[in-house]
Design goal:
Pathway: Metabolic intermediate biosynthesis; chorismate biosynthesis; chorismate from D-erythrose 4-phosphate and phosphoenolpyruvate: step 1/7. Keywords: Amino-acid biosynthesis, Aromatic amino acid biosynthesis, Cadmium, Cobalt, Manganese, Transferase. It catalyses: D-erythrose 4-phosphate + phosphoenolpyruvate + H2O = 7-phospho-2-dehydro-3-deoxy-D-arabino-heptonate + phosphate. This protein is an alpha/beta fold and 415 residues long. Strands 1-2-5-8-9-10-11-14 form an 8-stranded parallel barrel, surrounded by 5 helices. Strands 3-4 form a two-stranded antiparallel sheet. Strands 6-7 form a two-stranded antiparallel ribbon. The protein is 33% helix and 15% strand. It is built from 12 helices and 14 strands. It is globular and about 60 Å long. It has one domain: Alpha-Beta Barrel (TIM Barrel). Strand 10, helix 10 and strand 11 form a beta-alpha-beta unit. The structure holds phosphoenolpyruvate and cobalt (II) ion. Cobalt (II) ion binds next to loops.
């Protein structure tokens, strides 16, 4: 795995008191193994980009981060439930007020379904305002006549199948920051951002993957620690959750609540190590584990749940019924079946309940647009205008409502 070259020195401490960039964490993380980073053809273009991001005002406030942390602690107690949903890859061209309004409406509809099913207030979290970088299973994509670097998200390269579009371009990192700010501003303008009542708020989250985007956005906060100011709730993906990785070290140093995806190949030892590193003080709300096993393997979650409970970590468990259920059709189109997604949700709720834990909510890839990317509820995906995802297939609103209606409290639980 390549070492991450982020220099981590010489960056200005700018901004309001208590909100200056924290170069210490960047230098701590520099040099640790970092998977899924682009091969920038000209790394000398990076330092000005880092400086620009480090000098920006924070996208989210530390007060907001703390407020979400408190809500997650209440969710760990079973007083609230969680909905985290949005695009697989968010486009920087879809962060305008009208885009954000549609996404918020979708979160409201899905949140209402979960509230009706559980009787619990719902904390709404978007995969929004920064879900711009994607982990990929291959570095290359075969195209007629050769191969191209794979699309890694709009903060790295462009999706079009041409060499010049797929070449990683550091100026896209700045475009990402500007788009994220437009999305955050749009949430504020809707009355759903900073200053909104907790029950109205839409919190931001994304996979903290691209270190050249994240490290310059680490800020000091007034309680004498550091937080990631690019989002309220960063998560680590299934491919970068190695305990000695740059990504895990970064999350360990931050005071945001953090989440980590866990797939069916995770061992008990790996999960216990992650809990020890990411939640050393056993703080309710600090760590969420997002299970993404697939409908056929979710029973294998049981020993992990027992081990975490026995180790005394008050983690929140969530169900991502999407990423373990992706199938590639013979024609190469990636899709997911709604019935598999619903089956995983049901099983996940039950496995957690049988092992003295509870499923605090759902993590979905879904879009309010008229799409046909997953199979079910009258939709059969075909290449064409209805299949727009540039990464994983998303649920349409109707499909997502069906999925959310499948999430429920286990039998016997009292809301
Ligand atoms: C994702 O959430 O889009 C993703 C890539 O998930 P995972 O890390 O679980 O594969
Ligand atoms: Co995805």
């Amino acid at each position: 795995m390549p070492r991450h070259p982020f220099p981590g020195t010489g960056l200005p401490r700018t901004g309001l008191p208590g909100t200056g960039h924290d170069p210490l964490i960047a230098s701590m993380v520099a040099g640790l193994p970092a998977g899924q980073q682009p091969r920038w053809p000209d790394p000398s273009l990076l330092p000005p980009v880092h400086d620009r991001l480090a000098g920006e005002s924070p996208l989210v406030s530390y007060a907001g981060v703390r407020e979400l942390h408190e809500l997650l602690a209440r969710a760990a107690e079973g007083d609230l439930c969680l909905l985290q949903a949005g695009d697989c890859v968010e486009l920087t061209t879809e962060c305008e007020p009208a885009d954000v309004a549609r996404k918020v409406e979708m979160l409201d509809v899905l949140g209402d379904v979960m509230r009706t099913g559980s009787g619990l207030p719902v904390v709404r979290v978007g995969r929004i305002a920064g879900q711009f970088a994607k982990p990929r299973s291959d570095d290359w994509e075969s195209v007629p006549g050769g191969r191209l670097p794979v699309f890694r998200g709009p903060v790295v390269n462009a999706p079009d199948a041409r060499e010049e579009d797929r070449t990683p371009d550091p100026s896209r990192i700045v475009t990402g920051l500007e788009a994220a700010r437009r999305a955050v501003d749009a949430l504020d303008a809707l009355g759903r951002g900073e200053g909104a009542a907790p029950q109205d708020r839409v919190w931001t989250s994304h996979e903290a993957l691209l270190l050249d985007y994240e490290l310059p956005q680490v800020r000091r906060h007034e309680d004498n620690g550091s937080y990631l100011a690019s989002t309220h709730w960063p998560w680590i993906g299934e491919r970068t959750r190695q305990t000695d990785s740059a990504h895990v070290r970064l999350m360990a140093e931050l005071d945001n609540p953090v989440a980590c995806k866990i797939g069916p190949d995770a061992t008990v030892d790996e999960v216990l190590d992650l809990c020890a590193v990411l939640d050393p003080h056993r703080t309710p709300g600090r760590l969420t584990l997002i299970a993404r096993f697939g409908a056929g393997r979710v029973a294998e979650l049981a020993p992990l749940v027992r081990a975490v409970r026995q180790a005394g970590h008050p983690v929140l468990w969530m169900c991502d019924p999407m990423h373990g259920n992706t199938v590639k059709r013979p024609d190469g189109l990636k899709t997911r079946r709604l019935d598999a997604i619903m089956s995983e949700i049901r099983q996940c709720v039950d496995v957690l309940a049988e092992n003295a834990a509870h499923c605090a909510g759902l993590h979905l890839e879904a879009s309010p647009d008229d799409i046909s990317e997953c199979e079910g509820a009258g939709r059969s995906p075909e290449r064409g205008p209805g299949y727009r995802s540039l990464c994983d297939p998303r649920l349409s609103l109707v499909q997502a409502v069906a999925a959310a209606a499948h999430w429920r409290l286990p039998v016997g639980a009292v809301a």
